[in-house]
Amino acid sequence: MRRIQRVLILTADAGSGHRSTARAINAALERNYGDHVAVSVVNPIHHPKASSLLRLYEQVYLDEMQHVPALYHLTYALTDITGVHHMVAGSVHQMLHTAVRHVLHEHPADVVISVFPIFSAIVASIVRNPTTRPGLMSVVTDLGAVHSTWFSRYDDVCAVPTGTARRKAIRCGLDPAHVVTTGIPVGMEFAEPRASAAELRRELGWHPELPTLLLLGGGAGVGQIATLAETLDTAELPLQLAVVTGTNKALAEQLRAREWRIPAHVYGFVPLADMMHAADMVATKAGGLTVSEALAAGRPLLIHGIPPGQEEGNLKYVRSSGAGQWTPDAASLLRHVRRWVENPRELMQVTAAARRAGIPDAAARVARLGMELATHAPLPNPPSFLSRARRQLATWV
Q1: Spatial distance between the Cα atoms of 137 and 24, rounded to a whole number of angstroms
Q2: How is the beta sheet containing 212-216 ordered, strand by strand?
Q3: Do the Cβ atoms of 114 and 100 come closer than 8 Å?
Q4: Band of pLDDT at residue 395, cut at 50, 70 and 90
Q5: Are 172 and 151 in contact, with CB atoms under 8 Å apart?
Q6: What is the pLDDT of residue 213?
Q7: CB within 8 A of 5, min separation 6: which ones?
């Protein structure tokens, strides 16, 4: 009888992207391997044995990016410096070591998949014997500007979303043979619509034929959403607007109280897959998960917000692939929406580019790699400092 493979997915809740990635991998494992896999998804930061400072970090993460972005940018850049990021990682190790040890005891695993930085190295420091430790895999959730803390020399596999991220991993000393380009895992519902766009629009109560823009502000509904929506409303375009405010209840109430000139639909925290498939274009901030979901659905992007740090690389990926535009203010958003509405051929071209840029089966790729690790022995030892230095030097020559 085939033994059930135990998979532990370690995530965090600094923003909604890491948790969504974990859910996508979980669903792919259960869909593709059924009764042969048992999956646990755990946030070690929420464990009672974890430092309260880390839980506080999760709570203030969005506030810092929205209200003091310069501070976040400075912190991100400084901690990406090699010596500094090792110091930061060491501090986080101390605050999470006991919690992760308890999580491993409570959820025995054949493979640990981390969708947040640093967790893999902590697991390796707890289970030092390579014959007894689980396989280790990190899944990077940023498309371009990837922070160095993602890359652990203890990982048996590092799953990266793009060639840019792969090159950064190798520069950070990872063996190229263990760095696999998979894309960012998204839910299968983004890759495979459950109905046609016309049927979805009918279910949603949307106009069946008007060009439709889906306007997003992340899970917390942050940014200039109200200004963008109001500008589009007053432009008198033949346009339909769907606005998702996430958990921002005040914003939802403000927009629902407006007397709209164009057909407009305002939602709170809701699933997005049906809406993406029913819309013609998506306006959003540059979160790696949302960008990957839109591309998997084949929808062109209008990026209206880039918090400093990792999300700058996400915009670069969208623009370089021809899958969208940078629209930092209401005037530029309106200009690009007008151009796409008035030039359907151009909208078709950028939509085709979005489909090419998307990797809808990323979750299945990661699930397959995870199961392969679960049934094979992990790396016997991490690369030595000397061999890592030689590989890094080779990338610079």
Answers
A1: 15
A2: 264-267, 240-244, 212-216, 281-285, 301-305, 324-326
A3: no
A4: very low
A5: yes
A6: 98
A7: 33, 36, 37, 38, 110, 111, 371, 374, 375
From CA 372, how far away is CA 132, in angstroms rounded? 16
Strands 135-139, 157-160: pairing is parallel
Task: Please report the pLDDT score of residue 144 as a whole number.
Answer: 74
* Greater pLDDT, 90 or 372: 372
Nearest-angstrom CA–CA distance, 255 and 271: 19
Token reading at 306 = 């880039």
Give CA–CA dist 114/101, Å, rounded.
Answer: 15
Which 3 state secondary structure label does DSSP give 339? helix
pLDDT digits (tens, 9 = 90+) for 332-391: 999 999 999 999 999 999 999 999 999 999 999 999 999 999 988 666 545 443 344 444
CATH architecture of 194-357: 3-Layer(aba) Sandwich (3.40)
Strand partners, 266: 243
Q: Where are the domains positioned within the chain?
A: 5-186+360-396, 194-357
Identify each DSSP E strand in the chain by its residue range: 5-10, 37-42, 111-114, 135-139, 157-160, 179-181, 212-216, 240-244, 264-267, 281-285, 301-305, 324-326
CATH of the domain spanning 5-186+360-396: 3.40.50.2000
| CB-based contact 114:138 (threshold 8 Å) | yes
d(CA 14, CA 80): 18
User: What per-residue string of b and e applies to 239-256 under the rule 16 or more CB within 10 Å gives b?
Assistant: bbbbbbbbebeebbebbe
Any idea which residue has 């509904």 for tokens? Answer: 221
Q: Which residue has the tokens 């016997």?
A: 380
